Amino acid sequence: MSNQDERPENRLRKELPDEVPAPAAEPERTPAGPEWTPAEPRRTPAEGAEGGEPPLTGRQRLVKGVWPPRVTRAQLIVAVLLFGLGFGLAVQVASNSDSDSALRGARQEDLVRILDELDDRTQRLEDEKQGLDKQRQELQSSSDQAAEARRQTAEKEKQLGILAGTVAAQGPGITMTIEDPKGTVKADMLLDAIQELRAAGAEAIQVNGVRVVASTYFTDSGKSVSVDGNKINAPYRFKVIGKSQDLEPALNIPGGVVQTLEKEQATVTVERAGKIVVDALRQVKQPDYARSSSQ
To answer: What is the pTM of this model?
Structure first.
């Protein structure tokens, strides 16, 4: 009865042999010599998973290499600059968007008013530009006028200096030489020659190194003549600047200067020249009583 009561599982377990324990692995020998020490047993991937940390997958190794990030100073500076640039662009875009949206939402009357204000501002700017252009032209014109006035003043000063004898002069004219071997030529004869030359258009006259001006006077001094207190001797040499075609005939007219001097047994020689230099100068004399009447 007991044999029949035995189940098939128990009967099958009795027929299996007992488990035999696996022989222990022999320790590895070192190449040093006959002596050897037990080597650490190798672990299989399954044993490593059971006894330590599990192996990393490819994605885990990628994440571990990227995070935590390793930031250098150059990368930090570039990041700050890019952040600032992006922030500025965002603000600019937002501002333009606000302006555009404000104009889109404005009424027609507001748009017309804005256009009128822009037209008025443009007109004011154009008027201001025209005013500035006018001022520039006036300043330029006044500057040109001032320069022209200075030029004319300098030219007038030279002309007055020639007449006053304070400035040297040169130009076409004649030279007249009076030989007086007997000393018969008097001061009034030389003065007549000066008057005749002035009447013929003489502009500058010099006699023996003395400049002849409006106040020049001639006096007799023995057998010689004095000009403005300066004694001169024969021969008397006149340097005259003017139109030679008028000066020479004026001296040679009948009964004129040349015939009068020749009657006194003097010899007169008149020569034309393309360039006469009158370089004798007079000192500027300050008038004692006369003053300019211009304010």
So the answer is: 0.50
